[in-house]
Please model this.
Amino acid sequence: MPMPRLGPMLGAAIAAAVLLGTAAQAADAEKPARRDLGPVDFTGDWQRYPGIGGRGGPPDPAALPPPATKMVLRPKYQGPYDARRARERESDAKGEPIAASGVDCLPYGMPEMMSAIYPLEILQTPGQVTIIAEAFSQVRRIYIGKPQAKIGDVAPGYYGHSVAHWEGSTLVVDTIGVKESVLGHSEMPHSDQMRITERLRLVRPDILHDQITVEDPVTLEQPWTFTFAYKRMRDYEMLEYVCENNHEYIDDQGVTHLRLQDQDNK
Model:
């Protein structure tokens, strides 16, 4: 059956509609893939992504964290830091590793707690985000919408004092007051003036990024930024992790040794 002929005015209207639809599609294609819809809920259990030691299969390249910037220490701190690294390499080659954080059963503290060698649990409630690390059962509390205190008014601790605010769907966290004895990421030395800024956001429904920027006018020449990525662990239950330190000790040279069974019984 032949198609009916369209009048000139109707044909022009249809052509205009098609052009408008094409233009709208082009405009949609130029929009960001994900709109910032405001605060989101990070509640759940998370593990490092990609999995440490290759666990979990090959990662999605688009979900990987960006490379870190370079940590540049001031000369006063760079020399001792490099000497420590050289000593560690020498001790490792001998099979007598220098004591690392955790051997003495002390918590990792901030920001190394967020490196998540073991799983993390995030609990989000009105006005607060609580992060629990399975390793050493560490707990840090982030207060949302509260002003930050002055550094001199914060009692130094392992996790410092953390406050946060939302920028769209990104939680921006400001942490101060980490005690100087708590070594930073990659065992970075720091002063009581260190400030840690985190930007937590979902880059996929089940992939969380924590971009961390460390600033310290005493030890660092410039801010240092690195990012940890995590994958959601569905149906996981956090385990109890208690450090009892029954089998290791540190000698007066800082070298870690294993106690023999007969020594334990003396």
